[in-house]
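Record type: monomer structure entry
Structure origin: computed from sequence
Chain ID: A
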Amino acid sequence: MDVTWAQALRAYEAERASHDAGASAALEYALSRLADALAPSAGATAARGRVVAAIHAAVAQALGGLGAMGIEPYGSYVSGFFLPSSDLDLALAGRYDASALPRDVYAALAAELGHAPSGASVPLALLDRESHVELLKGVARALERGRLARGYIQRVFRARVPIMTFFEATTGVACDVSVATPGTSFKAKARTARARARPGALSPLCAAPRRPRPLSAADVPNSTPFPLNNPSANPTLETPHAHSS
């Protein structure tokens, strides 16, 4: 029996669909195995949690005389999509007691706001860059005193947003510490909510490893600086910075 062109085409499409279905299933299985291999273990997650808790406790004690401050994690650790090689992104968050502010900082802040700071404390994000550097120096001293850093703490204080990097002493996890901006806490919560709403085995692959490169002055956290001399700063914006990890 002669085969028409239409019949031949249907036969070809059926065979191709069967092949494509098999290839898709094989690809999905391979990607699922890769995602499982990259997914953080319960032990790795718990270890990073202990790192955050230890650094938070040391910093809260060291800077307690200046206000209610602590360490707040953000980034891939918060979303749960970190890799074994991922950095642990940390932000110094909280409020600075107005009575403990240096006179020049208090005067500059009052001039920027157009009035004396309201309330007994000031969000760290409202302080100027130099104040952020001094706070990070206090964090570095706390890390060194508590022997929480392995080796040298790299201080990148000339960057647009001052930042420190170091390896945690017990786990060897690379950590970045900066001062929280108004959006740090919100971004962490939003990323967590988005991660939980995005099912599927491919989600962890969003944190696929990239080629490492040296830290430079251009490297800053995923946030926007909020310096004291920023005319667009909103003095009424006060986001909660309480430790939530």
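Annotation 1: The beta strands are 67-74, 88-97, 121-123, 149-156, 163-168, 174-179.
Annotation 2: The helical segments are 5-38, 42-62, 76-79, 103-113, 129-145, 184-196.
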